Amino acid sequence: MTYYGHDAVSVLDGGWNRWIEEEREVETGPVTVSRAQFEPRVRPSWRTTAAKVLARLESPGLQLLDARDAGQFTGAKRRGPRGGHIPGAVHVPRELFFDPEGGFLPLDEIRRRMVERGVVPEKPTIAYCNGGVAATVVLFNLARLGYTNLTNYDGSWNEWGPRLDLPISP
Predict the structure, then answer these.
(1) Using one digit for the tens of pLDDT, what is the confidence trace for 60-87?
(2) Of 129, 138, 139, 142, which residue is the catalytic one?
């Protein structure tokens, strides 16, 4: 939604199941919703392409974050012809952000985990995974921490891995 210019976006932390487990109020019956008007204003800086990632690989200030599991990051598990990760990527799997009890971890714990991996708010950050979805978990939580220069490489490993013209690290 942020990519399309919508700033008033919320996520129900823990989802419907947590809401019910916590015995929060719910209503039943018909609902009347007033019609909303939203005109998309695409923010190109929120998405990037393989060519742009390749051009920035040598940028010293860039944080490239791989949201896939450890097996895919190391190349032990492959989804496609090649295994590994984009050179210079830091392994920040999406699972790092979830509480075992459900929902997201507290922000202080997420901040500690990012500092532990050297991920800082001052640097431009690109996240990727296999198809750009798991990367949004990383980007959403970094935004919650106040990071502002965030980009999703939605082509991700599904695009990068099979392309023999693009470098990989095992």
Answers:
(1) 889 999 999 999 999 999 988 899 999 9
(2) 129
